[in-house]
Write a structure and sequence with these properties.
Elements (H helix, E strand, L loop, with lengths): L2 H7 L7 E4 L12 H7 L4 E4 L11 H14 L2 E6 L18 H17 L4 E3 L11 H21 L3 E5 L14 H15 L4 E6 H6 L4 H8 L3 E6 L15 H10 L6 E3 L24
Parallel strand pairs: 1-2, 1-8, 2-3, 3-4, 4-5, 5-6, 6-7, 7-8
Helix pairs in contact: 2-3, 4-5, 5-6
Length: about 290
Amino acid sequence: MSDVTAASAWASVKGRATVNLSILFGELPLLERPAAAAALGFTAAELWWPFGTETTPSEAELDQLRRAFKDAGVRLTGLNLLDDLSVGAKGTAAVPAESDRFRENIPVAVALAESLGAGALNAIYGNRVPGLDPAEQDELALENLTRAAQAAHAIGAVLLIEALNRNDAPDYPLHTAAQAVAVVDRINAATGLGNARFLCDLYHLSVNGEDLPAVIDAYADRIGHVQIADNPGRNEPGTGSLELAALLDRLTAAGYTGPIGLEYKPASGVSAESFEWLPRELRAAK
């Protein structure tokens, strides 16, 4: 594909690309990733919770991360709340044994997001726990996510709720857009703030067999963030069978004009080689 053709195909990404630095540039130390993204023309990035299982990292650790972003001239657009992804878990909000840790993390994550300009916090829901009543977990999640939404609102941010794919997260209870949106609606009803939103990850939804155009048409008004990777493989666009450019055009036409998160694994293992699909003039965020 020529640069002109690519620029036309991916025009809807212009000014909206945000690189997920927890999955891209993973071959580099975390503090070097913002500068590596900037060198390739990106000016915005997002992160899963970047401190492993630490709920309250030291100010020195937080300052190092802030400095890495600011020195690179990269703005943080989104940040996960405590997710425990580093130990194979899928979030902490609905897990009773981790509830205190989730709550301790909220003000830390919100302060970090605010300091770097992030307008979205992503709360990974948490797996079902064998032997526990799912309804009790859901009530705990609602209580915790209500707190998180209120804290996010205080800095003008949205709280995101995401569906994950059942292959990678079989014990995660939100596998469909409808399930995730139902949680969004419960949070908004509880807070009255309206700042809970659906994180529409086109890769996860496609793995689960969802009708992606139908999801976009049904839930465009609830979408607060979009993430992309091709399927199969979870690699860069053009390596699988998803019509990602057309889907992003559909999202834009449906009224979604927010960031588009590049949350994929580089097919070659080298992140810098994985952006040929997106011409450099389309990479910088507004």
